[in-house]
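Internal tracking record. Fields below are filled automatically when a chain is submitted to the structure queue. Please do not edit lines marked as system-generated. If the sequence contains nonstandard residues, flag them in the REMARKS field before resubmitting.
Queue: standard
Priority: normal
Entity type: single polypeptide chain
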Amino acid sequence: MESHPAGPNGSRPGVRLPRRHALGLLAAALVAGRGAHALARTAAEAGSAAAKAPAVLRSAKVHSGLYELVVSRTTGLVHVAATGPRGAKAARILGLDPQSLEVRSEIELGDKPAFGLGLNDATGMLYASNTSGGTVSAIDLKAGKVVATLSPGEGGHPRQVLVDEAANRVYVSSFGHRERPSAIWVINGASNTLAATIEEGLAEGGLTGLALDKAGNRLFATALTSNEVVEVSLAGNHAVRRFPSGGEGPVNVAHDPAGQRLFVTNQKSNTVTVLDAASGALLKSLPAGEGPLGLALNPANGLLYVACRRSGTVNLFNSRDLTLLASLETGTHPNTIAFDPRNGLAYVTNKARTAGRGAPPVDDPNGDTVSIIRA
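SYSTEM-GENERATED OUTPUT FOLLOWS
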């Protein structure tokens, strides 16, 4: 009798399997197929979720003494303030490629280092707080030079720069220095001249951060030493009320126009507090990393970025349901954050570790860097 080689599943050519056996094999094949498809789908979904999860895309050494940064749609660059080595008088504004972080432009500032930055992209004018010198510089990005230096007098200590692009107005918080009280400087962007100095109701507390409520024609300012938030009327150019920040050492504040809320970083209590902008009431206190400092709110997707200086992380919160989405290690001391609304990328400056005043510089590979976050 002729023998035929066995086929798949042990069958032989020309031999008909019993119906029950055939159906069993078919069912097994279908189950195996569904299992394989399910595994493939699960792997694809996991890969997709990983691709969408917040992540640090890149970090790069840029220059010594990094502080604030801004993203410009006009120049297509990320501009960052760099004070340079201590005592070197080599301060500058660097323009970085938004993808590679390579330096594409430099504007020399010499012995007038910039710390805080505010950008009017419509005019191409960058405003920098020269905190140690008590002045604000107006820098023409296209010309690559300082076109005006502003100050209301001796003793100021300017910190944050906030630009109202539509109104071409610039607001600068001044912490106060020696006998000069805290204040908010108002700059006319059309002429780059000082339009007003708001002092009424602001003398105490040490002003640091600023946020603009455009619809309400008001500013909110953090008062570091009194643990308060101050509301300032821009119609009357004076403070109208003060209320607790909900934590200790409030440094920066962001305004949420959709929810009419304020987000405040409290550096001493390691929290981000959520306040009702209308009543000043504390809505929630969110545990953050150690030393929360800079923050930025992206109204397009509701993401709140918080730079935690002492823990070396940037925490991402969903500002709508107030949940923590990610805690990303970016560098030694995350300092300030800016995001590009066109692509959703966020940029972070990371300051370097120091050995203290008078000591030689410390070799810190994770300091003086800029990081890109995808969220």
